[in-house]
Design a protein that fits this description.
Elements (H helix, E strand, L loop, with lengths): L17 H12 L6 H12 L9 E8 L2 E8 L4 H11 L6 H12 L6 H5 L3 E3 L9 H6 L3 E3 L10 H7 L4 E8 L2 E9 L9 H61 L6 H30 L6 E3 L2 H8 L2 H7 L3 E6 L5 E4 L1 H18 L5 E10 L2 E8 L6 H6 L15 H11 L3 E6 L5 E10 L6
Parallel strand pairs: 8-10
Antiparallel strand pairs: 1-2, 1-6, 2-3, 4-5, 5-6, 7-9, 9-13, 10-11, 11-13, 12-13
Helix pairs in contact: 1-2, 2-4, 2-8, 8-9, 10-12, 12-14
Length: 449
């Protein structure tokens, strides 16, 4: 007998042991298309996971340059609000994404929120004489502060904001460097902070510190890649534009000469027109790739979008002379993506398949669930296939295997998939065709009343 279980439990289990709950909530975030800020919010959510289970409130400071700045503060402002929040968290079947969305709204309210008060607090991050809370970050030590109003090391401004006698300071470290600090308290329940609480909070602090470091390093790598891409783009633009401009200049110069025969004038003007159209095509494709702004991904039914692309006159015209086979499983789930970009992605992959496949070849489109949380849209062709060096460079801007291609289609597809938390997989051997798989986060379609 074989029993199968999902790696990720989609539900928030209020009655689970708190050690498991803390780690489970945080691990879920790495499989969601969350920003750095949202993933930090996930960690604060893990630390404030309900009445009597976690801390009541969690405060986050981040290091910016040589300063420690208040960023966000998650938790209720009163016992009444706490009751409402914990009622939401205990709703049967609630998922991690819903919890994050709920807490994001709680943090970003326009009224006098906890976060609004916190953002006014800024401390030197490396001052040996720093007061609490900066003291914990500067000393790289976890601090449990009790009877705060009588403790001279506690900054009075901070004490007025937090308004409790006991709180816990967790410095966020990465490679022995401070990247921030989390401060926790039980302002609503007044439950004492125990050694077990401190150990669990310390684990979350280690995760948060390393996550911030990894995200920051990733951003730096992206900046380096952008600079390299700009250099490639400059070379590409120079190469693509040189020939049309030289041609236009040369034939225009001939037209300026006296006594040019009418037949030659017409020939030159025709060449100039064609070269200008070529330039317009290059500029359009460049502008589309560089200016396109991807919208916030949403859940939607992909069926109509796929059908719209397949049935479009452009695709139907290209499909003449090919065996275009489309098979989608019934009752498709909702996928997470920008609907407009999704259509462009499907169109781009189909265009590539037609370009790579000789007339009479087969192009197969399949849509199916890989598992309860993943939907796969695949496009297979029977074209020339790809060499290993080509596969390694496919998603690099301006790399192309087409004679007249610009190498911007597949980088755009990867950009869309990265934005919605999906991924692209490529399987191909030279001479054996290619298979592109788009893997989207999905959920069951919501029933309409």
């Amino acid at each position: 007998m074989i029993e199968k279980y999902s790696i990720l439990s989609p539900d928030f289990e209020r009655d689970a042991p708190r050690e498991l709950m803390l780690l489970s909530i945080i691990s879920q975030s790495f499989f969601q298309p969350f920003s750095l800020e949202d993933n930090l919010l996930v960690i604060l959510t893990a630390l404030t996971s309900g009445s009597g289970v976690g801390f009541n409130r969690a405060m986050l400071f981040l290091k910016q340059g040589d300063r420690l700045r208040g960023e966000m503060w998650l938790g209720p402002r009163s016992a009444e609000e706490a009751g409402l929040i914990w009622e939401v968290l205990s709703t049967p079947g609630i998922g991690y994404v819903e919890i994050v969305e709920h807490n994001r709204a709680l943090v970003s309210k326009n009224e006098d929120t906890l976060s609004a008060r916190l953002k006014g607090l800024v401390y030197a991050a490396d001052d040996e004489n720093a007061l609490i809370p900066a003291y914990a970050a500067c000393r790289k030590e976890i601090l449990l502060v009790s009877q705060a109003s009588t403790e001279p090391l506690v900054d009075r401004r901070f004490l007025n904001v937090i308004g409790v006698e006991q709180f816990l300071c967790i410095p966020l470290l990465a490679r022995d460097d401070v990247v921030g600090e989390i401060i926790l308290d039980n302002a609503i329940t007044r439950t004492p902070i125990t050694p077990s609480d401190i150990k669990l909070a310390g684990i979350c602090g280690l995760m948060a510190g390393n996550y911030i470091y990894s995200a920051t390093l990733h951003r730096k790598l992206l900046d380096v890649e952008k600079m390299a891409a700009m250099g490639e783009m400059a070379m590409f633009v120079t190469h693509q534009l040189r020939n049309p401009i030289v041609a236009i200049g040369g034939f225009t110069e001939q037209l300026l000469k006296p006594d040019v025969p009418e037949e030659k004038k017409l020939r030159n003007l025709t060449i100039i027109r064609d070269e200008i159209r070529r330039l317009e095509g290059i500029i359009y494709q460049m502008g589309h790739f560089l200016k396109v702004s991807l919208k916030e991904p949403i859940y939607f039914d992909p069926g109509p979008g796929i059908a719209a692309v397949i049935d479009s006159p452009e695709v139907q015209t290209k499909a003449r002379g090919y065996d275009l086979n489309v098979k989608l499983e019934p009752c498709l789930p909702e996928i997470l993506c920008d609907p407009t970009s999704f259509g462009e992605v499907v169109r781009n992959l189909l265009d590539n398949a037609f370009d790579a496949t000789p007339a009479g070849g087969t192009i197969s489109v399949r849509g199916y669930r890989k598992n309860p949380t993943s939907f796969v849209l695949s496009i297979r062709d029977t074209g020339r296939g790809l060499t290993n060096p080509d596969k390694e460079n496919l998603f690099r801007p301006f790399f192309t295997t087409k004679e007249k291609g610009m190498g911007l289609g597949l980088p755009f597809i990867k950009r869309v998939m990265d934005t919605c938390g999906g991924k692209v997989e490529v399987q191909s051997r030279f001479g054996k065709g290619a298979l592109f798989k788009l893997i989207f986060i999905c959920r069951e379609r919501e029933l309409t009343p």
